[in-house]
Amino acid sequence: MASDLIAHHYLHTTPSHVSHPPPKPFSTTPIPPSHFTLYTTTSNKTVERVWLILHGDEDVPNPSEQMYALLATPALAGNHRKLTVNTYDKRIVQWAIGIGNRAMRVDLLYEMVLKPEGIKEKVVKGYKLGRGESWFVKEFPAMAGIVNVGGEEVWVVMTDGQEGGEGAVVSWMTVVRSQDGKRSYVSTLETKESYRGLGLAGMLLTGFLNGEKGEVWLTVFCTNWVAVEMYVKLGWRTKRCLWFVGHGGDEV
């Protein structure tokens, strides 16, 4: 599964992320779930949003009891109305929806996996594939931590720049690798709006996959039919579903 890689990505999404160890009774479960909280200030004195990740590969016993115990920890106390939960356990979804504040958003993501064997690279005329860590850090300074601290790779598709220009980045993705190199996780994949529908995302993915040996994971909202169809055609298959329950209005 990609639980650890997903958590790794979000942990470095912004400098204001703070990781918290599992409190009791979570620490006594067979596989303690990972979780962390997100603050808008580095001082952590003003909590604007709380982000909770539950990525246990087995069901959490007595979820309501344990979840309320989690809410009693200093980081989360009094902030459950701004809680966002990601979980594979439907019982926790039901708990999250009914914690005293109507859920503003409930979504389902597919966690998909691909073993890249025999992937043929797709090329779109007028564009070229490359690496773009320095471009990403400059373009998205608030997200620089996923590269500078998290060590994520950045793959880009650029215009070929044949008319004397340097070439502009029009599609990009970030990738997290496991320490043993046997798994990777496509953490983001974006194409500028005016360049969508040209096959650039497929060029980006197949260019990255060409030569990959380990499993490649990703998550995608099930309602994003265009992306789901592309991933399935390239060989990705859904391994399990990840529920997203958000509170807090505009912040979700």
Keywords:
two-stranded antiparallel sheet; alpha+beta; 29% strand; Acyl_CoA_acyltransferase; 2 domains; globular; Aminopeptidase; 252 residues; nine-stranded mixed sheet; 11 strands; 7 helices
Summarize the structure.
The chain is α+β, with helices and mostly antiparallel strands.
List the helices and strands and how they pair.
Elements lengths: L2 H9 L5 E3 L16 E3 L11 E4 L9 H9 L11 E5 L2 H8 L7 E10 L12 E5 L1 H7 L5 H4 L4 E7 L9 E9 L5 E9 L8 H10 L5 E7 L3 H10 L2 E10 L6
Parallel strand pairs: 3-4, 9-10
Antiparallel strand pairs: 1-2, 4-11, 5-10, 5-11, 6-7, 7-8, 8-9
Mean model confidence by pLDDT: 80
Percentage of residues assigned to helices:
10-25%
**Class by helix and strand content?**
alpha+beta
The H-level CATH homologous superfamily of the largest domain, spelled out, is: Gcn5-related N-acetyltransferase (GNAT)
* CATH C-level name of the largest domain: Alpha Beta
Shape: globular
Strand content: 25-35%
Give the C-alpha Rg. 19 Å
Oligomeric state as shown: single chain
The name of the CATH topology of the largest domain is Aminopeptidase
The figure for the number of domains is 2
InterPro entries: Acyl_CoA_acyltransferase, GNAT_dom
Protein name: N-acetyltransferase domain-containing protein
Domain N-acetyltransferase: 133-236
GO molecular function: acyltransferase activity, transferring groups other than amino-acyl groups
